[in-house]
Amino acid sequence: MKTSLVSLGFLLGDKVMAAKPKKEITHHFALQCLECETIVMSLQRHSMVYCGCENYVSVDGGFDYFKAGAKDISKIKSLKVKIL
Ligand SMILES: [Zn+2]
Fold first, then answer.
1. Distance from Cα 27 to the centre of ligand 1, integer Å
2. Residue 41: closest CA among 68, 74, 22, 6
3. Mean pLDDT value across residues 62-80
4. Hey, CA dihedral for 39, 71, 49, 27, is it positive or negative?
């Protein structure tokens, strides 16, 4: 009986703590710089990615949070990317 619970979580003394089931990730967000056409997408937490041109389009946060920036935000396009 305990063995099946342990496989779902971890054993702490006599208590079995069930881990939260991981939410299935089906989509991710990215930005496209309309100045240089580069699409930037952060794949890891605290991994900031830049487009490389003078507009400095950046995204950060991976799948944990979404933080974005650009010199001129009128020159960015938000994209929702489907993960297969
Ligand atoms: Zn750019």
1. 23
2. 68
3. 95
4. negative
Ligand 1 geometric centre to CA of 54 (Å): 6
Instruction: Give the N- to C-terminal CA distance of the chain in Å, as an integer.
Output: 35
Q: What is the mean pLDDT of the chain?
A: 83
CA 16 to centroid of ligand 1, rounded, Å: 50
Q: Which residues surround ligand 1, an ion (CB under 5 A)?
A: 33, 35-36, 51, 53, 55
Query: Which residue reads 């342990």 in tokens?
Result: 6
**57 φ, ψ to 5°?**
-70, 130
State the average pLDDT over residues 19-32. Answer: 84
Round to whole Å and give the CA distance between 78 and 57. 11
The answer to whether the pTM exceeds 0.85 is no
Cα–chain center distance at 59: 10
